[in-house]
Amino acid sequence: MDFSMLNQIFQDNLSIILTVIVVLLVLLIILSIVMLVKLSKAKKRYNSLVNGATGESLEDIIADNIAQMNELVVKNNKIDAENIIRYIHIFVLKLLFFFIIFISYSSYCNY
Q1: Distance between CA 3 and CA 11 in Å, rounded?
Q2: For residues 83 and 35, what is the distance between their CA atoms, to the nearest angstrom?
Q3: N or C, which terminus of the chain has less Cβ within 10 Å?
Q4: What is the C-alpha radius of gyration for the chain, rounded to an integer number of angstroms?
Q5: Do 23 and 30 contact (CB within 8 A), yes or no?
Q6: Backbone phi, then psi, for 2, in 5-degree steps?
Q7: Torsion sign over Cα 90, 92, 96, 99
């Protein structure tokens, strides 16, 4: 195939080729604008996540939550210890009650 024939085909279809190139260029520009808008929204969401609603950083929020959880663990352990002591007292009182009943019954049966 000769370059002159190829040149002739190109010149005959130049308007179609340029139209396709322009359409593709416009399509790429539109896609670029859409991507920039999506990127802007993603940046806003990221900043709101990192900075928080009150402007406090995410690290500070996590540190505060960990401190609150540690306080709750200490309170829970204290409540558990108090409950264990309470259950021991109830158990001892029940043992004493049954022991008194047993002694009373034993002394009653001996007579």
Answers
A1: 12
A2: 60
A3: C
A4: 42
A5: no
A6: -85, 150
A7: positive
Indicate the burial class of 61 (C-beta count within 10 angstroms; 0-12, 13-18, 19 or more): middle
Helix (H, G, I), strand (E, B) or coil at 13: coil
φ, ψ of residue 34 to 5 degrees: the values are -60, -45
* Token pair recorded at residue 52: 């928080």
Alpha carbons 59 and 56: distance in angstroms, whole number: 8
Mean pLDDT confidence for 58-83: 90
Instruction: Report yes or no: 46 and 52 within 8 Å, Cβ to Cβ.
Output: no
- As given in the structure block, the two tokens for residue 22 are 């322009």
Judged against a pLDDT cut of 70, whether residue 110 lies above it is answered with no
Please, which residues have CB within 8 angstroms of residue 7's CB and are 6 or more apart in sequence?
Answer: none
Instruction: Identify the DSSP state of 55.
Output: S
pLDDT of residue 52: 65
**Start-end of H helices in the chain:** 3-12, 14-51, 58-110
